[in-house]
Amino acid sequence: MAWDPAQYLMFESERARPFHDLVHRVDVDAPKRVVDLGCGPGNVTATLLDRWPAATVQGIDSSPEMIAKAAQLAGPRLSFAVGGIEAWQPDGPVDVIVSNAALQWVPTHAQLLLRWMSALSEGGALAFQVPSNVDSGAARAFRAVAARPRWADRLAPVAAAWGPSQSGGVLSGEDYVDLLGGAGHRVDAWLTTYFHVLPGEDPVLEWFSGTGLRPFLDALAPADHGEFRAEVAAQLREAYPPRDYGTVLPFRRLFVIAYRDVGGGPA
Ligand SMILES: C[S@@+](CC[C@H](N)C(=O)[O-])C[C@H]1O[C@@H](n2cnc3c(N)ncnc32)[C@H](O)[C@@H]1O
What we know:
Elements: H1 5-8, H2 12-25, E1 33-37, H3 48-51, E2 56-61, H4 64-70, E3 78-82, E4 94-100, H5 109-119, E5 120-131, H6 137-146, H7 152-161, H8 173-182, E6 186-198, H9 203-209, H10 214-218, H11 225-239, E7 247-260
Parallel strand pairs: 1-2, 1-4, 2-3, 4-5
Antiparallel strand pairs: 5-7, 6-7
Bound molecules: S-adenosylmethionine.
S-adenosylmethionine binds next to helix 2.
C-alpha cells in the first residue's frame, strides 16, 4: 500500500493540530532522545526540535515515500528511517515516544505498549493519538458502498477488517487506561471531536483518499478507482452536506499519555 505524501498533506494544518495538542500535554523536562513512530512526511516531527531543544529526534515510518519526503527536513538533531512499528526496538534509552495517527494501522499495537513503556527512561512518556470514528458517517459510507454487488467480492473482506469490531485494533479509552494504569503507569487520556470546516469539492473524499479509503482502493484495480470513488463521494455528500462556507467533518480522536514514573510501574 503506497502512501502519497502530497495527498496526505492536502489537509496539513487539520492533521497537524492533534499532534500539537498531544505533544503540548507531555510533561517531560528536557528529554534527550525522542522517537516519533509512524512519522509520515516528517512535517510535524520536525516541530519537536522546538518543543524540546535539548533533544535529538528520530522519525520511523514503513513508507519509503513518506520517509523520502521527511528526509528533506533532516538535520543535526533530526533523522528519519524506514521501519515497521511492529518491529521497532529502541537501541538505547528513550525519553519520549510519540505516535500520532499511526497506531490504528498496526492491529497488534496494544500488545506493544507495555514493552515500549519498559524501554523508556525513568520519568519518560509514551504519547499517542488514534482516530476514534468507527461509527462515523464516513465509515458507514465506505461499508455501504463496499457491500454493493459491484464491489462486494473484493471489498467485503476489507470492510470486515476495517469495520467496527476491528478498526486497526484500536481499543476504547477505558481499555487503554486500564492496560497502562493496571501496569502501574500514570495515565492522562482524553477524547476530542474536531469540527473541521473543509474547502473545495468533495473534500471528505479527498481527506479519506489520503488515509482510511486507501485499503479499499488498494483492493481494486486502478481502472475501477474512478467509479468506486464516485459512488463513495455521493454517499459522503449525503453524510456531510456541503454548505456555503465549506463542508463540516466532525472527527473524533483519542489521546493517551502514559508516564514511566520514578518508582512507579514495573521495570
Ligand atoms: C495518518 S499518517 C500519520 C503521519 C504523522 N504521524 C502525522 O501525524 O502527520 C500514518 C502513517 O503511519 C505509517 N504507518 C502505517 N503503518 C505502519 C507500520 N506498520 N509501521 C510504520 N509506519 C506505519 C504510514 O506510512 C503513514 O505515514
